[in-house]
Amino acid sequence: MADTLTLAVDCGGGGIKAAVLDASGTAHAAPVRVPTPYPLPPELLVDTIAKIATDLPAAARATVGMPGMIRSGVVVHTPHYITRSGPRSRVVPALADAWRSFDMQAAVSARLGLPALVLNDAEVHGAGVVAASGLELVITLGTGLGTAMFHGGRIAPHLEWSHAPVRRSLTYDQYIGEPERRRLGDGLWSRRVVSVVDGLRPVFHWDRLYIGGGNSRCITPSALARLGDDVVIVPNSAALVGGARAWDLPLA
Fold first, then answer.
1. What is the spatial distance between Cα 17 and Cα 7, in angstroms, rounded to a whole number?
2. Residue 213: which region, alpha, beta or left (left: phi > 0; alpha: psi -120 to 50)?
3. pTM of the prediction?
4. What is the pLDDT of residues 154-198, one digit of tens each?
5. pLDDT tens digit string along 29-55?
6. CB atoms < 10 A from the CB of 1, how many?
7. Which residues lie closer than 8 Å to 212 by C-beta, 6 or more apart?
8. Separation CA 145–CA 175 (nearest Å)
9. Nearest to 195, CA basis, from 180, 183, 182
10. Which residue of 24, 65, 89, 242 has the lowest C-beta tally within 10 Å?
11. Membrane spanning segments where (predicted)?
12. What is the spatial distance between Cα 181 and Cα 54, in angstroms, rounded to a whole number?
């Protein structure tokens, strides 16, 4: 419905951002951002989302994007929220147990009193940009590497290949994540991004690759020129716009 407002929440490793948008993706108030609290049991994330919602206009439904493997709104695995103090800190076994099989979608819906949709954050990001034509791959560059794949606008089963090894003992997360960007500088890090794209192209044979996330703006102009015409850099705002558009995606 054209007048339906959606609370879109983008849960990251370092921050949680939310906005209320109409069906066209237009925000009805300035987005709200708070630092991601740690340690972070499921109930605290739900409470944090509810608190943010009180500072925004009322919405008719909610979309939450969060890192990790999410199936039908249920958390199979989430990498950051099971740690003591955030990305790459010590894993807390009790948090890992609390998050495993947690029905985030049901919890958000019950807490807010709204229909809710909970997806992987890269899937929500993709919902904001895909053309729903052919095979479209989305990668987000931030704390680590987020990924999503769409075929004809339908979300494909999620694969956490960001945890697969790409070079020696390094995973994709470790190879092009934020700590390596800070260590290497944008120039050398951008060369790694190009290398990753070149390596993935013959695996997926995508029709279009979208690169988003906060660090997409750090890719150098010379690296951008090498990525190819089948690669599009998209704004990080897609993570919130996708919250509104995700409800219109064709059923998987």
1. 11
2. left
3. 0.92
4. 999 999 888 899 988 899 999 999 999 999 999 999 999 999 999
5. 999 999 999 999 999 999 999 999 999
6. 8
7. 125, 129, 138, 139, 140, 141, 233, 234, 235, 236, 238, 239
8. 9
9. 180
10. 24
11. none
12. 35
Amino acid symbol at 123: E
Residue with tokens 């944090």: 48
Two structure tokens written together for 4 = 């339906």
User: How is residue 16 written in tokens?
Assistant: 């949680």
